[in-house]
Amino acid sequence: MGIEYLGLSSINGPLVILEGVQDAFFDEIVEFTVDGKTKKIGRIIELYEDKAVIQVFEGTENMSLDNTRTKLTGHPMEVSLAPDMLGRTFNGIGKPIDGLGPLITDVKRDVNGLPLNPVRRKYPRNYIRTGISAIDGLTTLIRGQKLPIFSGNGLPHDQLAAQIVKQASLGDGSDEPFAVVFGAMGVKHDVADFFQKTFEESGVADHVCMFLNLANDPVVERLITPKVALTAAEYLAFDCNMHILVILTDMTSFAEAMREVSSSKGEIPSRKGYPGYLYSELATLYERAGIIEGAEGSVTQLPILTMPNDDITHPIPDLTGYITEGQIVLDRNLNGQSIYPPISVLPSLSRLMKDGIGEGYTREDHQDLANQLFSAYAKVGEARNLASVIGEDELSPIDKKYLEFGKAFEERYIGQGPEENRSMIETLDLGWELLKILPREELDRIDTKIIDKYLPKEQES
């Protein structure tokens, strides 16, 4: 029988301090009994001699220095796992909240994960189709990749996340098992209801596992939610041999929760008040994506973060960009023009795209076509800048063609309905259709043989 400690030494926000602790270890889970009836759990985050600093997940309401009993469990934070997690909804620390009862399973895993031997990693190949042309055609998501979405307050990243969950697949003709793990941190009740309702009405809820930390849930729970979601994803991928897409929204809520708890602990702040270990904490989460030698499954991450004041140099997007393999950037100007999804093509990038597209994966013309669309859209910006100085009527015929291309590209290629699910072939064919607006001699990024094959002469400009 374990030792039970009576009373607490001090309470500071979500943190309590317990003195006289024996044989405790960092990250150990403790159980609190408040007033002899209410049960809470916490995690040891700091040890000094016989003192332990403990984060209380359910918050310290109703707790006082003399009404609380504390018991050490002897193990770190663990979550129950089973294949029938799919179709279920859990709270931020992995407890079911859908009224269907607990999971029937003997499998429990440490939410902190196990260190992955880099030698066992396989290079990401093949793609995940989202049905969104601006992503599939120009910043293709590769299995095993971590590709964040940089958004801003008020932009439709929640709608985009829901659309990706509804439409994501392993591509046309693939029969490999695929599922989505969705982790939401600090979301409002109406946003959580929107996600649940959308997944149920679209019929995809049975292959989605949801972890919801609501805005009125304790702040410290937000620090555990992405770890619980990724632990579930690793189990489904490497034990159940499934390809898992993990969507985490919003990583900014996670970072702000970390800042709040760090401040409560009295730690010296770094940039913008965030703790100095923000980089290592983000890396610990993002690096849990990948493919392991000998396993048939994969974990792909699509974290979403809102940039404070749309500042891409803010510590959260800045550090995220160092760790991940590219980014998808949402643009406020496009959103103001009612273009959905408002994906800003030029600053968006998928560094692993070249290894999962082309012949044998998507189509032989994919890489050349993407290069040409990027190049042409960059020239659209130059033509618009020139037009703002000398007027559109004074532009050369070729610059006017680029303006026409830019308008069509934004409205037809970037823009698509929230219910529109395009196949990879439809996305590629649409790209060629838009390039027909430009003279053939402007297509300088594509091999002549590919132009001859996919841009018929009788339809050229």
From TrEMBL:
<comment type="similarity">
    <text>Belongs to the ATPase alpha/beta chains family.</text>
</comment>
<keyword id="KW-0378">Hydrolase</keyword>
<feature type="domain" description="ATPase F1/V1/A1 complex alpha/beta subunit nucleotide-binding">
    <location>
        <begin position="131"/>
        <end position="350"/>
    </location>
</feature>
<feature type="domain" description="ATP synthase A/B type C-terminal">
    <location>
        <begin position="355"/>
        <end position="454"/>
    </location>
</feature>
<dbReference type="GO" id="GO:0046933">
    <property type="term" value="F:proton-transporting ATP synthase activity, rotational mechanism"/>
</dbReference>
<comment type="function">
    <text>Produces ATP from ADP in the presence of a proton gradient across the membrane. The V-type beta chain is a regulatory subunit.</text>
</comment>
<dbReference type="InterPro" id="IPR055190">
    <property type="entry name" value="ATP-synt_VA_C"/>
</dbReference>
<dbReference type="InterPro" id="IPR000194">
    <property type="entry name" value="ATPase_F1/V1/A1_a/bsu_nucl-bd"/>
</dbReference>
<dbReference type="InterPro" id="IPR027417">
    <property type="entry name" value="P-loop_NTPase"/>
</dbReference>
<protein>
    <recommendedName>
        <fullName>V-type ATP synthase beta chain</fullName>
    </recommendedName>
</protein>
<keyword id="KW-0813">Transport</keyword>
<feature type="domain" description="ATPase F1/V1/A1 complex alpha/beta subunit N-terminal">
    <location>
        <begin position="9"/>
        <end position="65"/>
    </location>
</feature>
<dbReference type="Pfam" id="PF02874">
    <property type="entry name" value="ATP-synt_ab_N"/>
</dbReference>
<dbReference type="GO" id="GO:0005524">
    <property type="term" value="F:ATP binding"/>
</dbReference>
<dbReference type="GO" id="GO:0016787">
    <property type="term" value="F:hydrolase activity"/>
</dbReference>
<keyword id="KW-0375">Hydrogen ion transport</keyword>
<dbReference type="GO" id="GO:0042777">
    <property type="term" value="P:proton motive force-driven plasma membrane ATP synthesis"/>
</dbReference>
<dbReference type="Pfam" id="PF00006">
    <property type="entry name" value="ATP-synt_ab"/>
</dbReference>
<dbReference type="InterPro" id="IPR004100">
    <property type="entry name" value="ATPase_F1/V1/A1_a/bsu_N"/>
</dbReference>
<keyword id="KW-0406">Ion transport</keyword>
<dbReference type="Pfam" id="PF22919">
    <property type="entry name" value="ATP-synt_VA_C"/>
</dbReference>
<keyword id="KW-0066">ATP synthesis</keyword>
<dbReference type="GO" id="GO:0046961">
    <property type="term" value="F:proton-transporting ATPase activity, rotational mechanism"/>
</dbReference>
<dbReference type="InterPro" id="IPR022879">
    <property type="entry name" value="V-ATPase_su_B/beta"/>
</dbReference>
<dbReference type="GO" id="GO:0007035">
    <property type="term" value="P:vacuolar acidification"/>
</dbReference>
